[in-house]
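During the reporting period the student researcher (J.K.) took over the structure-prediction task from the postdoctoral fellow and processed the backlog of single-chain submissions. One of the processed entries is reproduced below for the supervisory committee.
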Amino acid sequence: MPDDGAGIQLTVLEAGGSPIDSADDVRLINFYTYPDDLRSCWVRGNMIASLDGGATADGKSGGLAGKGDRAVFSAMRHAADVILVGASTVRVENYSGSQLPVAARQARQRRGQAEVPPIAVITRSGDLDPSALLFTRTEVTPLILTSARAVEDTRRRLGAVAEIIDASGADPSSADYAVILQVLAERGLFRVLAEGGPLILGSLIENGLMDELCLTIAPILVGGASKRIVTGPGDVHTKMRHAHLLADDDGYLYTRYVRAD
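J.K. obtained the following structure tokens:
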């Protein structure tokens, strides 16, 4: 094969950078600031993967997380207007509403954001348990983005604990991702944090709606048949550019890539 790598300049990312205190250092917040003056949704994906490409350990992404990952996870939630997630991830990870400390709430108020970002769940069937933590441990009403065929039944079952929204496009049996982002934008929820699962991220990528991906690489090998962080039928080739790379003493790497175009 041809030596296409000849003459490429590589950069060694060495230890010795200035440390960041995740508890109170504004620099960590600044690493995950969204673009200014948004008028449409900016979609940031946040996922974690093992060294050998697995998205879960023991069936949950939380099985890969460390202390640093949880700090970065919190920083991203503190910056977002809305947290977008699929129903399967809500069930598996036992999602509750976002919990923010006083300092983060005050910072959000100064930026003109609501104190707490809502969770927005994509589910074409509306099949969610009204007694789940998503509905019982939250300060703000969750948004349920479902299909036209399921919306009335979902309102009957979940209308007392959530806002049910018809997010269908041409197909009444499915939620449309462009419609979903339009719905969020109409509510002023421009800073979108997509936390999975793999099918949600795959659909966003397939439809050209993913603006950036923050990927934590855990220093863990999981083997087995663990899924990738993204799945779906559509193949695309979206060029990305790196925005930053952070590391911690436990060997985790925190990458951020933004769409190149």
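The committee noted the following: The chain has two domains: 42-79+193-260, 81-190.
J.K. will present the remaining backlog at the next meeting.
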